[in-house]
Design brief:
42% helix, globular, Spore Coat Polysaccharide Biosynthesis Protein SpsA, Chain A, alpha/beta
């Protein structure tokens, strides 16, 4: 039977809190939230943070989440607000176009119990171009070698580590790169082999090679110290 919205009376702290930032995701929000209902039935908390959608996203999502709140537009701002609202000692940040593996909760907890303070999943990119499989493999390898994760890889972190670094840097782009850098100073990430599946719409819209070259140029400019605000303008 298909999953349906559910509610759960608050008890103790949940084993894991998933924070999902959204903006104008009405067309796909129920499909994004439906697979997470099995995790909710196992006690996982789901916090959705809207950045000012004009298409009714929060109303469509309300029955599928444990909390729905609003924050200034921007993934960093929205995820930071969601983390403050979340009740678990372990936080997982999930993009609306990314699907977790079914056993994500147990995999994350096992990594934390083994001593990791943060981590991420390997990623698979859904889409037609065969090049997307190569892109995903390179993302996973680069992340494993550098200890830097991207938001598409569903970053997770203990609340203690998250608070120690001051949460997400409130910048309009590269917030995933920056938080990885700060967390890497605390410890190397747990690089889980289990894969999340993320949408290839960004690569398909711009073109796979064009997107790869754009992101590498932006990362290079960021490493050289260019402001996230200027990089956000270039990205748009």
């Amino acid at each position: 039977m298909p999953a349906t919205p559910m509610t759960r009376a608050p008890t103790g702290a949940p084993p894991l809190s998933i924070v999902m930032p959204v903006l104008d995701e009405a067309a796909g929000i129920e499909a994004a939230l439906r697979p997470l209902q099995a995790l909710r039935r196992r006690g996982v908390e789901l916090v959705l943070v809207d950045g000012g959608s004009a298409d009714g996203t929060p109303g469509l999502a309300a029955g599928w989440v444990d909390a729905c709140l609003y924050a200034p537009r921007g993934r960093a701002s929205q995820m930071d607000a969601g983390a403050r609202r979340a009740r678990s000692g372990i936080l997982l940040f999930l993009h609306a176009d990314t699907i977790l593996p079914e056993e994500a909760d147990s995999l994350v907890r096992a990594a934390i119990e083994a001593g990791a303070q943060w981590g991420r999943f390997d990623v698979r990119i859904a889409g037609r171009p065969a090049m997307l499989r190569v892109v995903a493999a390179l993302m996973n390898l680069r992340s494993r070698l550098t200890g830097i994760a991207t938001g598409d890889q569903a970053i997770f972190v203990t609340r203690a580590a998250f608070e120690r670094i001051g949460g997400f840097p409130l910048q309009p782009l590269m917030e995933d790169i920056e938080i990885s850098r700060r967390l890497r100073a605390i410890g190397h990430p747990a690089c889980l082999r289990a894969k999340v599946t993320t949408s290839g719409r960004r690569w398909e819209r711009r073109g796979a090679w064009a997107t790869i070259l754009l992101m590498w140029r932006l990362r290079w400019r960021y490493w050289r110290g260019e402001s996230p605000e200027r990089l956000a303008q270039a990205y748009r």
